[in-house]
């Protein structure tokens, strides 16, 4: 008799019956925390003090996850989300909480993680006096919108991905985007659907730069001339710089046309630093902070904490295109910027030339390797770190060889910051300042900055 494989039901993923829970706190990812039968239950969308109706969606040995069905007794801090797409779009996840309460929650989460993981037993009010606050809405100067072509309807959807899904939520506007970027979403959605090759379009990246509004469309094949003409006319009508990017990352500028004598292949977006004294260019697709106002204030605070002197050598790891390095060099210190992405190092060098800064050097290197062995490094007086979410654990292993007097650590993940702070403290540093930076209002993401002194 033939036997057929029948997969067993995944009990950990089965929905439970509906139940009522009391939410007592928020975790650092913005989910409500409740208790049920001795387990911690995480409920996205729920707030402390609330009584909520939920269904368990996943059960593990020590915790469970639940879906919020109904808020029975709402928190005084709950507000109606301003965005019409909030319940579907995965871009924001804390619009149901007042902005002031969001900031307090993020500060509390940062302090809690640092005290649990870093070895700092007490974080005083004096350490926490330098938080940086943002406006609640319209703060993003950059966004990447996803596309999905529906063959049955012959239609291209443009929007953001749903929470924990590849599904595209079509949107007409976005309240956290700069207004002039948000206003382009619906016209782009309409006009991209007029193209013959709309099935060959990837994401759309919008950037509000100092010099122009930039739009970059990812394409998987060469567009026909009729589509090029249509897009060029659209860009001219809306006064935007429009680029196409192929699968190899190569950029082609459709509008405005470059002068034949221009040595640049495409126009590059830029943003100001040091109160306009520095112009920082970057290539579309490369990392820049999305909140321009907060970025400028964060850079200024980092420089104030480091207090660069003209006779000092300062190392900037994960330097990107020079976001911190260039303003540091403007203060007169000798700056060494190191970055793992070669193209960003090339741009950083060009930014130094354009801003006439000759006291700065940029190098491409593997940031998990021991840079203390590099001949170009030499003695370092102070250090700035701005790593990705994974943190800088590998870099800190050889820091003892350099012994900088001060370390400023900029972080987009408080868990990796707390872990790395423990390494610094074990190497003889003490935490002097810790600031929560409101880089991403309406989301659970926490940006922070810490100052350590030897």
UniProtKB/TrEMBL annotation:
Cite the entry's keywords alphabetically: 4Fe-4S, Iron, Iron-sulfur, Metal-binding, Methyltransferase, rRNA processing, S-adenosyl-L-methionine, Transferase
The chain's coiled-coil residues are: none
Instruction: Please write the reaction equations for the catalytic activity of this protein.
Output: uridine(1939) in 23S rRNA + S-adenosyl-L-methionine = 5-methyluridine(1939) in 23S rRNA + S-adenosyl-L-homocysteine + H(+)
- Keyword DNA-binding applies: no
Q: Which GO terms describe its biological process?
A: methylation
List, in alphabetical order, the Gene Ontology terms for molecular function in this entry.
methyltransferase activity
Q: What class of enzyme is it?
A: transferase
User: Could you say which residues bind S-adenosyl-L-methionine here?
Assistant: 289, 318, 323, 339, 366, 386
Residues the record lists as binding [4Fe-4S] cluster: 83, 89, 92, 174
**EC number assigned by the record:** 2.1.1.190
Which positions fall inside the TRAM domain?
A: 12-70
Question: What residues sit in the active site?
Answer: 412
Cross-referenced HAMAP family, in alphabetical order? Answer: 23SrRNA_methyltr_RlmD (MF_01010)
> Which family is this protein grouped under?
Belongs to the class I-like SAM-binding methyltransferase superfamily. RNA M5U methyltransferase family. RlmD subfamily.
Job description of the protein: Catalyzes the formation of 5-methyl-uridine at position 1939 (m5U1939) in 23S rRNA.
Q: What is this protein called?
A: 23S rRNA (uracil(1939)-C(5))-methyltransferase RlmD
């Amino acid at each position: 008799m033939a036997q057929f494989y029948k997969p067993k039901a995944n009990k950990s993923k089965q929905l439970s019956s509906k139940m009522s829970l009391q939410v007592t706190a928020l975790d650092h990812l913005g989910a409500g925390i409740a208790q049920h039968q001795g387990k911690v239950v995480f409920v996205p969308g729920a707030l402390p003090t609330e009584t909520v109706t939920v269904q368990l969606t996943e059960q593990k040995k020590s915790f469970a996850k639940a879906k919020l069905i109904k808020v029975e007794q709402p928190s005084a801090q709950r507000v109606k989300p301003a965005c019409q797409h909030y319940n579907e779009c995965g871009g924001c996840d804390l619009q149901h909480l007042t902005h002031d309460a969001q900031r307090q929650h993020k500060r509390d989460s940062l302090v809690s993680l640092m005290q649990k993981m870093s070895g700092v037993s007490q974080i005083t009010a004096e350490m926490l006096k330098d938080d940086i606050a943002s406006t609640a809405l319209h703060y993003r100067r950059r966004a990447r919108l996803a596309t999905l072509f529906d063959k049955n309807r012959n239609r291209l959807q443009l929007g953001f991905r749903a929470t924990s899904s590849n599904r595209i939520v079509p949107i007409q506007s976005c309240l956290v985007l700069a207004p002039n970027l948000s206003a382009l979403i619906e016209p782009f959605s309409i006009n991209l659907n007029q193209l013959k090759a709309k099935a060959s379009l990837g994401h759309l990246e919008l950037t509000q730069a100092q010099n122009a509004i930039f739009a970059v469309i990812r394409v998987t094949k060469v567009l026909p001339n009729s589509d090029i003409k249509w897009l060029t006319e659209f860009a001219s009508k809306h006064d935007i710089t429009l680029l196409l990017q192929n699968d190899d990352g190569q950029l082609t500028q459709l509008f405005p046309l470059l002068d034949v004598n221009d040595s640049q292949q495409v126009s590059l977006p830029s943003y100001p630093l040091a109160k306009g004294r520095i112009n920082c260019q970057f290539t579309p697709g490369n990392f820049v902070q999305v909140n321009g106002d907060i970025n400028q204030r964060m850079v200024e605070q980092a420089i104030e904490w480091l207090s660069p002197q003209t006779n000092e050598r300062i190392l900037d790891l994960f330097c990107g295109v020079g976001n911190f390095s260039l303003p540091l060099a403007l203060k007169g210190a000798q700056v060494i910027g190191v970055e793992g992405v070669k193209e960003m190092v090339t741009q950083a060098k060009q930014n130094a030339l354009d801003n006439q800064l000759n006291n700065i050097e940029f190098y491409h290197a593997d940031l998990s390797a021991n840079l203390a062995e590099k001949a170009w490094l030499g003695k370092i007086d102070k250090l700035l770190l701005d790593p990705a979410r994974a943190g800088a654990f590998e870099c800190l292993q050889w820091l003892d060889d350099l012994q900088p007097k001060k370390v400023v650590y900029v972080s987009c993940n408080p868990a990796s910051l707390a872990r790395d702070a423990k390494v610094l403290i074990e190497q003889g540093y003490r935490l002097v300042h810790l600031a929560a930076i409101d880089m991403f209002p309406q989301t659970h993401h926490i940006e922070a900055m810490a100052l350590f002194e030897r």
